[in-house]
Amino acid sequence: MSDKPVSDHRASDISRRRLIGTAGAAGAAGLVLGATGGATVYAAAGPGAAPDGKALTSVGSTAVPFHGAHQAGITTPLQARGHLVAFDLAPGAGRKEAAALLRRWSEAARRMTAGRPPADAGGDTGVALDAGPSSLTVTFGFGRTFFGRTGLDARRPAALDPLPDFSSDHLDPRRSDGDLWVQIGADDALVAFHALRAIQKEAGEAARVRWQMNGFNRSPGATAHPMTTRNLMGQIDGTGNPKPSESDFDRRVFVPADGGAEGPEWMAGGSYAVVRRIRMLLDDWEKLARGDQEKVIGRRKSDGAPLTGGTETTELDLDKAGPDGKPVIPANAHARISAPEQNGGAAMLRRPFSYHDGIGADGTPDAGLLFICWQADPLRGFVPVQRKLDRGDALSPFVRHEASGLFAVPGGARDGEYVGQRLLEG
Amino acid sequence: MSDKPVSDHRASDISRRRLIGTAGAAGAAGLVLGATGGATVYAAAGPGAAPDGKALTSVGSTAVPFHGAHQAGITTPLQARGHLVAFDLAPGAGRKEAAALLRRWSEAARRMTAGRPPADAGGDTGVALDAGPSSLTVTFGFGRTFFGRTGLDARRPAALDPLPDFSSDHLDPRRSDGDLWVQIGADDALVAFHALRAIQKEAGEAARVRWQMNGFNRSPGATAHPMTTRNLMGQIDGTGNPKPSESDFDRRVFVPADGGAEGPEWMAGGSYAVVRRIRMLLDDWEKLARGDQEKVIGRRKSDGAPLTGGTETTELDLDKAGPDGKPVIPANAHARISAPEQNGGAAMLRRPFSYHDGIGADGTPDAGLLFICWQADPLRGFVPVQRKLDRGDALSPFVRHEASGLFAVPGGARDGEYVGQRLLEG
Ligand code: HEM
Ligand code: HEM
C-alpha cells in the first residue's frame, strides 16, 4: 500500500483528494495521481455508513490506517488540528512499564484511528462521538532520556545525541525534550482532543505529561490548494519539501528497512522528528512592506513562486541578477540558504502546525509555527540547515525558537505488534 | 432574507446544508427547510470560482452576509474556529475616535466576510489567501464602560448594569469585561486568525487589546449531526436552545425593531451577549462513571435524549419517577434547573465555542467552554438561570467560571452604514 502524501499534485476539491487516496490504496494505477497515505473513505460522496452505522460525510469518515511500514502522521496530508504532548516516565517506571504503556497506547491509537473508542471497557469521554475518525493519526516517539530510564542505553541511536546550541535559541526547558513524544493530528478538533485525553488517560501511573502544545492548519475544503498550507506570516509553506515521487524521498525521510547505516535495526522504517516551537514576531513582521517580506523568503506571497519568476513549482534561479546587479533572490533569503543544494544535499520533510495561544506576557501574539521536520538522520537534515540559517537567515529577526525536541520515531507496527516493540522486547 | 440557524433540522451533509441556505436566501420557499443565516455558496458542488477567480470548495466558498437586520454570528451555524477579543479605548480616545474605529472595523468586516482583503491599500498579511470566506462572521459589541469613556452615559442601556456576583465565580478581571468586544468565527482557522489580526490592526491608536481567547467547534463535514455540537465533557450541547421556528424566538433573542420595552432605540434588532469562560475540571469529571455523568445533566451522552426516554428532541419528563420513587431526572440535574419552565420562561440562545489552552498552572487541562449566550434582556435570560444554577446545579463541582463579560450587540448595519452608527451618531 502506498504511504505517500498528496504533495505533488493539485486536487481541486477535498472529496476528490480523498477519493484519489482510496483508489491509490486499492491499487488502481490509472488513478494514482498521488495517494493520501492510504486513507480509506467510508463514504466519499454524501453521507454513508461508518463502522458504527452512523451516517458520515467524507471529512469525518476518512480513516488513515494505523498499521504500515511507517507510522501514520509523517506523510499523511496536513490535518486541521494537532496536539503535541511529551511525557516523562514516572519515578520507578522502567522498561517493563514502558513496554506495557506502548502496548496500551498502540491499541488505543489503532482503535481510535478506525473511529472506535480507545478501549472496550467503558470510561470513554464520548467527545468524539458522532464524528468519524476524521483522518486521525497518533504517532509515537522516544526521546534521548528514555533510554537511560529504561536501561536501554546500548540501543540508543547516535542520531539522538543532543542538538547543538544555536545562537538564536531561547529555549524553555520545561517545554522541551521528554522521554516520550506523541503527535496527534485530525481534521476535527474534538476528535483530536478526544485522542489526546485518551492517550493521557492510558499513561496511567507509568508516565506524566511534561509539556503539551496545540496547533492547526487549514480546514479540509477551505481551499483548493491542498499541496501546501499557509503559515501565520501568510506564506505558502511546504513547497520545497522532498516529493514522494522523487527517487531519494524514502532515503531522506526514513531509516532503511534493514536499519542501514543510520541504524539501529529497531528503527527500520522509522524517522527522526525535530520539533521546534518557533514564535513569530508578528507585530514586527507585519510592519514590513510585502515586497520586503518577499525578499526575506525569496518567494512571492501571493502564489509562492520564486522571485525569479514562474509558478510555485518553478526552481529558484539563484544566479539571476536584477537591474542593480544584485541577486534577485537575496544572499540571505530563507529559501536560498535552506535549499539542499546549499547544504550538501541536506533535506527534511517539514510537516508543521501553526500555533496561536492568544496574547503572550509581553503583549504580542503568542503565535508561530510548531515546526516538525522528519528525516532519516538529523545530521543530514535539520542540523546543517539550522546551522546555516542561524548564521545568516533574513527571517531570523522575525522568529524566536522557544522550545525544542528530538525524537526517534520507530517504524509502523505490524498487525498484532505495538509501536516500539522491536526496541522494548528485541 | 431569513436569518435563522439550521438548528431545527438534520441536514445529512455539509454541502446539502449549505445549499439549503442558499436556496433559502434566494427565497425558493419550497426549499427553506432551515436557512443558514443567509449563507451564499459560490460553488456548492465541487470546485467553482470565487470573486478572485480561484477555484474553491464549498467549505471555503460559503459566505455569510455582513449586512442584515441582525449582526451575523448570532444565529449563524456554529463555526469550527472562533476568536473573542476585547478592547479598551486608548486614553484620550472618545466618541469621535470610537465612531471612526467602528466605521473602519465595519468596512474591514464587510470586505473580509465576502472573501476580500480588509482594505484596498496594501498591508494585508495574506494569511487568508487561497481560502474563501469560509463562513467568516465578525460581530461587534459595547461594554458598560464604553459609554462613560465616550460621554454617552445617557444612552447606556439598563441591560448593561453589572451582572450580579455568583457564589461560584472565580473571575479574573484581566480577562473580563472591556469597552468593546469582537467575536470572530470561521470554518477555517487561518481565515479566522487573519480576521483577528486585521481587526487588531484597524484598532490603530484608538483602542488596545484587553483580552483575547480562542475556541473551536466541530469541522464542517466531520459529523452528520449539524444541529448541535459536543462539548469537551462529551455531551451534545445546544439541544434545548430556542428554535427559530418558535413564534417567540425573535422576542427572546433580539431587541424588537422599534427598540421596544428593552430599548434603547439604537439597540433595535440587537442582542445582549453574556460571555463566560467556564473551565471544565476534566480530571474530576472523567472519573465519574457514564451513568453518573448522565444524571448530572439529565440526558444521555450517546444521543442527548432525556433520561426519561425518546430521542434528542423529546421533551424531558420532569415528573417521571424511577423504581426507587426518585425522579429519573434528578432534582439538581443541569437540564432540569436551567429549563425555561423552571425559570419563569427565562431563555437564551447558547452559541459557544470550546477552548483548550494546553495545561494550566495547576497541571490540569486549561479547557472548557467559551459560553456565549444571546438574549433580548439578560434579566430575562442569563441572570435568573445562572442564579438558579449557582444554588444547586449538579454540574457546579465540575466547572469554574473564570472570566465574564456582558456586551450590547447592536442590530446589523444597513448598506452604507457601520455597526453602532445609530448609537454614535444618533
Ligand atoms: C517560523 C519559522 C519558519 C518559517 C516561517 C519558514 C518559512 C518558509 C517558507 C515560506 C519557505 C518557502 C516555501 C517552502 O519551500 O516551503 C521555506 C522553505 C524552507 N525552509 Fe523554512 N521556515 C521556517 C523555519 C525553518 C527551519 C527552522 C528550517 C530548518 C532548519 C527550515 C527549512 C526550510 C527548508 C529546507 C525549506 C525549503 C528550501 C528549498 O529547498 O526550497 N525552515 N520556509
Ligand atoms: C461548562 C458549563 C456548561 C455545560 C458543560 C453545559 C452543558 C449543558 C448540556 C449538556 C445541556 C443539555 C443539552 C442542551 O440543551 O444543550 C445544557 C442545557 C442548558 N444549559 Fe447548560 N451547560 C453549561 C453552562 C450553562 C450556563 C452557565 C447556563 C446559563 C446560565 C446554561 C444554560 C442552559 C440552558 C438554558 C439549557 C437548556 C435547558 C432546556 O431548556 O432544556 N448552561 N447545558
Q: If you had to describe this structure to a student in words, what would you say it looks like?
A:
Two copies of one chain form a homodimer. Chain A is an alpha+beta fold. The first copy, chain A, has one domain (79-426). Chain A is 22% helix and 20% strand. Chain A has helices spanning 14-26, 58-61, 95-112, 144-149, 189-203, 249-253, 282-285, 290-297, 334-337, 382-392, 421-424, and strands at 40-41, 48-49, 55-56, 62-63, 81-89, 137-142, 180-186, 207-216, 229-230, 236-237, 271-280, 349-350, 353-359, 365-375, 399-409. In chain A, strands 11, 12, 13, 14 and 15 form a five-stranded antiparallel beta sheet that branches. The first copy, chain A, has a four-stranded antiparallel beta sheet with strand order 6-7-5-8. Chain A is globular and about 70 Å long. At the A-B interface, β3, α2, α5, β8 and β9 of A face β3, α2, α5, β8 and β9 of B. Bound molecules: protoporphyrin IX containing FE (2 copies). One protoporphyrin IX containing FE binds at residues 231, 233, 235, 237-240, 276, 278, 280, 297, 299, 334-335, 338-340, 368-369, 371, 382, 385-386, 389, 395, 399 of chain B. Chains A, B: Residues 228-413 form the Dyp-type peroxidase C-terminal domain. Chains A, B: Involved in the recovery of exogenous heme iron. Extracts iron from heme while preserving the protoporphyrin ring intact. Chains A, B: Its EC number is 1.11.1.-.
